[in-house]
Amino acid sequence: QELGEPFRRDAMKKPVRVAGRIATSTSAKASAVGRLLTAQLSDAVLDEILATNTSQDAAIRNQLSDLRKTGKTVDRGGIEAEVCTFSQIVKGTGNTVVGAIEVLAPQFRANATEIESALNTATEELSRSLGGAVKTGLAQSLEKDVVRQTGTVTN
């Protein structure tokens, strides 16, 4: 089977250990993409959701600024010991968050750089098709300079 460049050929024979997930649901706070989407909520809603002060709530609070600024996350071994999760938000009209794309891959097979690049391309194309503004080139560079100088992000 041809898997493409994001996967390491030398690791194809090793089995991946994962738990069965048939007919199960997971709290948004317990998954990487869930934490990413939760972080995009308004502060008032977020305070209500994170009121239980669990370790997952603390993780979201600690990563809040970064999750909002980058709109992406990489979680190595958080869901399953041998699984790496890559997720990135998708924006629609008015540059509002409308969803996210998540990719899971075996840690020892994944080429993180290739997966992140493909995910970035996919979310940019989907955001553009949904009317979201995708910052590229000079606009993206200028925003990075503003963020470095002020420490805040504007959408």
Please identify the structural class as seen in this structure.
alpha+beta
Strand order of the largest sheet: 1-2-3
Q: What would the average pLDDT be, to the nearest integer?
A: 75
Low-confidence stretches: 137-147
Distance between the termini: 42 Å
The best one-word shape is: globular
What count of helical segments does DSSP give?
5
List the helices and strands in order. HHHEEEHH
Radius of gyration: 17 Å
Work out the helicity level. Answer: 40-55%
Beta strand %: 15-25%
Tally of DSSP β-strands: 3
Please describe the biggest sheet, giving its number of strands, its sense, and whether it closes into a barrel.
3 strands, antiparallel
Give your account of this protein's structure.
It is built from five helices and three strands; from the N terminus they run H-H-H-E-E-E-H-H. The protein has helices spanning 32-39, 43-49, 55-70, 112-129, 137-150, and strands at 72-76, 83-91, 97-106. A three-stranded antiparallel beta sheet has the order 1-2-3, sandwiched between helices. Helix 1 (32-39) packs across helix 3 (55-70). The N and C termini lie far apart (42 Å). Residues 137-147 have low confidence and may be disordered.
